[in-house]
Request: fold
Amino acid sequence: MAVAVLTHHQTAGLYGTLGTLLAVLAERSGTTGQRVARIAAAGACGTVSMLAGPATGGSGIGPLLVVIAFAVGSAVLSSLNPLLSFAGMQLLVQMSIAGGLPQRAPAPVVVAWYLGGIGWVILGVLAEGAVQRTGRLYRATLAGIAGDLARQVAAGQPADYPLEARLAELHATVTAAVGLTATRRRELADVRTRTDEVAGLLPWLAAAAGLPEAARERPAERLRRLADDIAGGQRRVAPPASFAALASGGAGLADRVVAAIDAIGTAGGDAAWSRRDWLSGLVSGGYLRARLMSYLARLVPCLAVAEVVRQLLPLPRGYWIGLTVALTLKPDFQSVMARTLQRAGGTVVGAVGAGLVLLSHSVVVNLVVMGVLAAPIPWAVRRNYAYFTVLITPIVLIILGFLGPVGPAGIADRIAQTLLGCTIVICFGWLTWRGTWLPPSRAQLGAVLDDLADYLAGPPGCAQSRYALARSVGELRAVAGHGALEPRPVRERRERWAPVVDDIAGVVTAGDAALVANDKAGLRAAADRLADTARTLRYGQASTGAGQADSGDEPPELAAAVTRLRRKVAEAW
Reply:
């Protein structure tokens, strides 16, 4: 912005500053390549919106159709992959800004400044990556997970859900990562293979957690050694006695667990990078999920209503309404209420503060305040959305002030339009939707039970089925959870589902013990009962058959865990 002021290009410089701001918010964390890819995707979507966004600034059916088209594109991008989620939001944010702000400079000049601001941030990310060597982040993350597993085994605790979720997230992230060189692609494929191998250890580590304290120390020590080897990228040597030989020879549980840990990373040859695996990881089945349709069915009406309100009401800066909708409406229900209220409160506080700063009419003061307010944004954006809004609102208002005086009327307009946009989100994107008030759908719960049945009936230690189960349980936790700002009836309905999530973890723990014991008949019987419950849920019957006795083939612990889960599902409905 200072360069724009010195060169008398305030209009184009405004877009350059906005480009810099979005790039800073997009990069967050990850490897250098991942951060640059996220910034580049957001910048590309922002450029498209700047070029096509002015078509939303008029009146009539034309601008409304353009807004709907942008909403559809944003929803699809947001559902494909987390890497594209921020880019999808930028389609809507820059669309609103481009449609509301007058472009007093030629489009090529505006785009050049916008991309220049983004490029300035990318240079900083590349410099930071060269110093910090973020390319080792994936190995460090996997090594940290292995170290945490060692601590849990030493303490006699099976792997908890957060650790399993971290493994599943790491697998998805590494699969979607792009290696620019052959060496980097081989390294990514190797990390992915090691992640799968660590995930395959989970049943054995759950069994090891039940050993006496003295016997647990050997597996824990091997896990700590594994974490050091992964962090250092060292090729491990296969142990003299293979895991298969120990298993067939009737060795003790501690010996088999140690052999399984020692076998990780000993496979010969380099892991191969697969373009097909990369494409499947990038999409990750996202847009095929019903979640996309739910988000799309809420986003389109909210933006359509915001556009109609903008056209009908004599608002001097009506684009702020659509901007508020784009920033607050999220695919998951429970964050919408809290995020919307935080946006409203943060905007009021931040706008009042900006008004006090703009009274100075000093370019130097405004630039200094922008820098001071921008410094804590990396902390605020992870801490609380209200804190972030308090900081970002005056920054945006100060940037807009370089085009002309904002004044008390302009600040009041921003507050009123933000509150109007928040009202639209709550009414059309939260209050009127079934998923806001009711527990998980029968189809979603049935899908979780199917994933649980597939894990029990599948190959022992199958990483892919474990990842699928971790993802589905994570989505169920999100739906069954609640926000502190949600109404009490909503919180009470969601709290009924917390025991169901806990009992799913109990079935996994009991199933791991049966997997280690190689009780295939018992696992199949338990999987059949869970699959039967899933089918019953999908057909919408009132009872899930929770009282049905097991077949007698299941181990007592697994049979009791499955029966308890079925009963809790029936009680929750």
